[in-house]
Write a structure and sequence with these properties.
alpha/beta, globular
């Protein structure tokens, strides 16, 4: 029997009330993704050390290497326990419930302006070779063209949003979906960061939530299931804990608090965290 340490409150509630039925969608060293049969949404079982996130449960395990959990294994809940075939049972006893709550945009912007400047400089020094920030010259024509498209399309998207040309912005945002290598492509990660900022109460683009939702409608057919869920959740203001912590640090934190929070985001994936951070910077600078 494994113990759930913390997790998304709605996910825990479904498990406790015997309402979760699904199958293993994909497996990795430290995460397992489960597809829910009722809704089709993806849920994640993650090892300790990974931060809380929407549709995610953190358990007291270092890795899944010896669990022998495989794609299509049946997953079900009963008596406050989530069971994966006959291979793993996870009890909800003592679990800490987490729900994403993004901070409100600050009424005074002095701290934010200073922190955004610090964040941009830090990303340049410590970011993980994002292809969005600058023209990427690898010597590989395919990679260089991918980098050019990412850079150009993110700039066009931000420009259209700043000019309140929402229908054209939707077109540019859609052109980013699925663009770039990796499990969560760079274009998707940038949009997750941008959606996060647009979901902040009192941000001037908060009234344009329909933009995010419209982009997500196009996303299902354009990217993989894992990346799609991250976009769909971000579009309604639901992001992983490290990202919401970064927003709080940007709005009200000291430089030390900002950099600690930023390091946690930059550590996401190989380049995903950097691309998310660049989307956050773009969204905040639109609010000037």
């Amino acid at each position: 029997m494994r113990f759930a340490k913390s997790g998304d409150g709605d996910f825990i509630q479904r498990i406790i009330h015997h309402k979760f039925h699904g199958f293993v969608h994909s497996t990795f060293n430290r995460t397992i993704n489960i597809q829910c049969l009722d809704r089709g949404d993806l849920y994640t079982i993650a090892c300790k050390g990974i931060d809380n996130a929407p549709n995610t449960l953190i358990i007291d395990l270092e890795h899944f290497e010896e669990a022998d959990i495989r794609v299509n294994d049946i997953v079900s809940s009963g008596h406050s326990v989530l069971s994966i075939a006959n291979k793993m049972s996870i009890t909800m006893n003592g679990v800490k419930r987490w729900n994403c709550k993004l901070p409100k945009y600050p009424s005074e912007a002095d701290v934010l302006i200073m922190n955004v400047s610090t964040m941009k400089q830090y990303i340049k020094l410590h970011g993980n070779n994002s292809r969005i920030e600058r023209a990427f010259k690898s010597g590989n024509p395919f990679d260089d063209e991918m980098s050019r498209m990412l850079h150009e399309r993110t700039q066009l998207l931000v420009s259209e949003l700043q000019n309140k040309r929402i229908s054209t912005a939707i077109t540019h945002a859609t052109s980013l979906i699925g663009l770039g290598p990796g499990l969560t492509p760079a274009g998707d990660d940038f949009l997750v960061g941008l959606f996060t900022v647009m979901g902040i109460e009192n941000h001037q683009y908060f009234s344009h939530q329909s933009f995010c939702e419209e982009v997500v409608l196009h996303a299902k057919a354009l990217t993989n299931d894992i990346s799609y869920m991250a976009l769909a959740k971000a579009a309604v203001g639901q992001v992983r804990e490290s990202i919401s912590d970064l927003m709080e640090a940007l709005f009200r934190g000291s430089e030390e608090e900002l950099l600690l929070a930023l390091d946690r985001v930059l550590a996401i994936g190989s380049t995903s965290g950097t691309d998310i951070a660049l989307g956050i910077v773009a969204g905040l600078e639109m609010n000037k």
